[in-house]
Amino acid sequence: MSSPPPAPLSHRVPDLAALELLLAVARLGSLGRAARELGITQPAASGRVRALERLLGVALVDRSPRGSRLTEAGVLVTDWARRIVEAAEAFDAGARALRERRDARLRVAASMTIAEYLLPGWLIALRTRRPDTAVSLHTGNSAAVAERLLAGEADLGFVEGLDVPPGLEGAVVARDRLVVVTAPGHPWARRRAPLPAAELAAAPLILRERGSGTRQVLDAALAAHDGATAPLLELASTTAVKAAVVSGAGPSVLSELAVTEELAAHRLVEVPVAGVRLHRTLRAVWPAGHRPAGPARELLGLTAGQD
After folding, report:
1. Domain 106-301 has CATH 3.50.50.60
2. Where does 58-181 have alpha helices with state H?
3. 0.70 exceeded by pTM
4. In what helix (H) or strand (E) does residue 23 lie, and over which residues does it extend?
5. Positive or negative, the Cα torsion across 229, 231, 236, 237?
6. 3-class DSSP state of 270
C-alpha cells in the first residue's frame, strides 16, 4: 500500500517572518530586543518562536533571565534560515528590478484620431506624474492596434470601432461623432435639406482604409442601404483624407474631432445627413485577463471622466 503524498511545502516550511525573528534572536541574544527590532510585542515574538518549534518538532531557543540562547538545533536551523532569507531578499530585489524596468517604459498603440486629438493631452498629464517614464507611441487603424496588443507589443491601446476587438477588454474613454464634410465648392455644400442616407451610401467618398474605426462605423451605419459604394479614394491617414477633401477631390466622413479647425476656418463644410446615426465609442483596450499595471494603469486613470 502506497504512502500518502507529503503535505505541500508551504505547510512544512516556516514563513519568512518566523525565520527573520530567529536570526534576530541569534544576533541580539535577546527575544525582547529581537521583538523590538522587528516591531512586534514580546508576547507575539514568544508565540512565533513556539509555533516555529512546534512546526519543526525541536526546541530552538533556551530562555533565561539573562537572555535567550540558541540550542544546538537552533544554531543549525539558523544557518538554514539565513540562506532562505538571503534567497528571499534576492528574489525581492529581482522582482523590484522587474517592476522598475516595467515602470520605466510605456508602449502605447492608438488609432489615428485618438493619437492625434486626444492622446497628446493625456501623455502630457502622465509626464507630470511620471517624468522618468519613456513613452513610445505606435499609430495605426483599430485592427492594427488590436494586433499589437495581442502580440505583446503594446501595454495599452486605444481604438475607435463599434466593439471591443476579440481577445481584448476595454473601457470607454470618450464618445465621438462622425460628420460628412466637403469643400465649399462641392454641390453638397449648397444643399438646403439634409442629405438622404441612401444618397450618401451611393456617392463615391474619400475614405479611410478598411480596418479603421471610422470605416467600420460608416459601413455599419449604411448597412440598411447595402453599405457604402466603392470609395473614390482610400487613404491610410486622417490627415491625407482631409487634405484630399480640402483640395476639392470629393466628400468624406471623418471624426468631428479631426475637422474642428477646418470647419471653423471654412475650409470644409459639414453636410447634415438624414436617416443615419454616425456616432461611435472610443475605448482604451488591453489583453483580456491582464488589467493594465504601472504607467499603463496611470494613463488609463487619466482618461477617466472623458466619457
Report:
1. no
2. 72-103, 112-117, 119-129, 142-150
3. no
4. helix 16-28
5. negative
6. strand
Half-sphere exposure of 288 (CA within 13 A, CB side): 5
Find cell 527573520 and name the residue: 20
CB–CB of 81/70 below 8 Å? no
Euclidean distance between CA atoms 135 and 296, whole angstroms: 10
Q: C-alpha cell of 93?
A: 530585489
Rounded CA-CA distance 148/168 in Å is 11
Name the packing angle between helices 72-103 and 16-28 (round to 10°): 120
- What CA–CA distance (Å, rounded) separates 303 from 298? 9
Q: How many CB atoms lie within 10 A of CB 127?
A: 12
Grid cell 522587528 — which residue?
Answer: 38
CA distance 300 to 188: 40
Q: What is the CATH number of domain 9-98?
A: 1.10.10.10
User: 107-135, pLDDT tens digit by residue?
Assistant: 999 998 899 999 999 999 999 988 888 89
Residue type, 291: R
> Hey, where are the domains in the chain?
9-98, 106-301
SS3 content of the chain, % helix, strand, coil (to 5): 50, 20, 30
The residue type of 253 is: V
Q: Closest by alpha carbon to 206, among 176, 242, 177, 178?
A: 242
Predicted confidence (pLDDT) per residue in 95-108, tens digit = 665 665 555 689 99
Q: Which three cell numbers stand for residue 216?
A: 467600420
